[in-house]
Amino acid sequence: RYRNLCPDVVNHGLGQPLSVEANTPTKEPIWFAPYQFAVEEIFHARMLNHPCRTNDPARANLFYVPFYGGFHMSSMGRETNYTARDELAVQLAEHVEQQQPWWGRRNGKDHFMVLGRTAWDFMRSDRQQGVVDYGSNTLLNLPAVRNMSVFVVERHPSEGNNQLGIPYPSYFHPYTVDQVRDWQRKVAGSNRPYLFSYIGARRKEGVAAAIRDELMQQCSESEHCMLLNCTADASKCSDPKEVLRVMMASRFCLQPRGDSFTRRSVFDSLLAGCLPVLFSRHTAYTQYQMYLPENTTSYSVFLWEDEKMISDNGLRKVNIEEELMKIGSGKVEEMRKVVVDLIPRLTFAHPNASGDKGFEDVVDVALSSLLRLVY
Fold it and tell me: Most Cβ neighbours (<10 Å): which of 27, 140, 189, 369?
């Protein structure tokens, strides 16, 4: 059975509105619970109302190709006929190439699209018979698409030369810079009685399962850690207000990889001013260079690669509490200031925000960065 996503993608993809307490009440909702893979719809809605948009292709420096590839992939993931599964992607590539003279102007280099799922979902190769390839379709392997730039929530670390990491959508979608500053003040002044916290569920097997089990164990053993066990209480973990409450009470948030390398929770923690503790470089460092500082130690802690966290005989190699205790309070405050300053550029402004909203959001950063890459 397929999950009904309709309630999660209303309001331009932002989902259902939330009531989150801020310093200054707002007339319009600015807090929502978006589906974590809804970035395609949110980005498209922002583009339709973006001040840089033009309907005259002769004046355009960039061409946006609005394709909801993630939603299409989800609907076709169980299709056993690969030709049928790939058909829409192939038709899209052919259609875009036929848009002359604009495609030929730079052979597609000034065209881009946004995909709300990981790159792996669009890189099925079919090269090796008998080898399981988890990519659902071949969109990112099509020659025309390889000429474009493609924003994805998770890029392929080694093969994604034209892939650019874009943040997962979190809960905050402001209209104005004053709303952003109000939230930044609240985050900066939040009382954080816990050294660290962990919000997550167990996995059945593999490296991800071992590391999550270890994090749960260490957190439950520490009086300085706040644990939200999503296996035991999934309803709390799906409640954005509960997630924010835990993160805003913590100085550090443990962020193991998700089902793939990346995890939306990283952006939830940054929104809450909670310093992310990472266990794989591909969870953030190799993904979101347009959005996060080059100096990774300025905003995050990297403890150890997943597979090195626990030795072969099951003995613990890293004591998380001890490692985090080594970071002085002055350094923590310095890092939190960096994180608080990052909030605007990691936020998707509300699609109905005016062109003079007063801050650069995810979409603005994407466009300005892409212009520099293309030109």
Answer: 140
